[in-house]
């Protein structure tokens, strides 16, 4: 990150990296889940493995947890002094 960057820009950078990681992981998980749907169907009772609600519920839970996990990282990145960070490197 650049010395003298605005706090909003730093927060946007950290948040955008988190969103990219969560979206890529969710897409991979969704693809693997759909590929394994026929094997999972035997384990489910009165629910289809490809039901939209059953796919969206874990994805939304993971997204919510990822947002909550990003908050401390964003606050730390915004409040860090760049000169102190450069001295430690």
Secondary-structure map:
Layout: H1 7-35, H2 37-40, H3 52-79, H4 82-88
Helix pairs in contact: 1-3
> Span from first to last CA?
13 Å
Query: Structural class, please?
Result: mainly alpha
Strand percent estimate? under 5%
Instruction: Give the tally of β-strands.
Output: 0
Radius of gyration: 19 Å
The tally of domains stands at: 1
| Helix-strand string | HHHH
Largest sheet: none
* Average pLDDT over all residues: 83
| Amount of helix | over 70%
- The outline comes out as rod-shaped
| Low-pLDDT stretches | none
Helical run tally: 4
Q: Can you tell me about this structure?
A:
- The model has no long low-confidence stretch (mean pLDDT 83).
- The protein has 89 residues and is mainly α.
- The longest helix has 29 residues, at 7-35.
- Helix 1 packs antiparallel against helix 3 (52-79).
- It contains four helices and no strands.
- Helix content is 76%, strand content 0%.
- It is rod-shaped and about 60 Å long.
- The chain has one domain.
- It has helices at 7-35, 37-40, 52-79, 82-88.
């Amino acid at each position: 990150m650049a010395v003298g960057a605005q706090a909003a820009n730093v927060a946007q950078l950290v948040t955008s990296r988190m969103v990219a990681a969560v979206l890529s992981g969710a897409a991979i998980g969704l693809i693997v889940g759909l590929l394994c749907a026929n094997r999972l169907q035997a384990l489910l009772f009165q629910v289809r493995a490809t039901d939209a609600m059953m796919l969206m519920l874990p994805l939304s839970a993971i997204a919510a947890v990822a947002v909550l996990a990003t908050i401390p990282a964003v606050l730390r990145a915004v409040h860090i002094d760049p000169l102190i960070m450069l001295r430690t490197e």
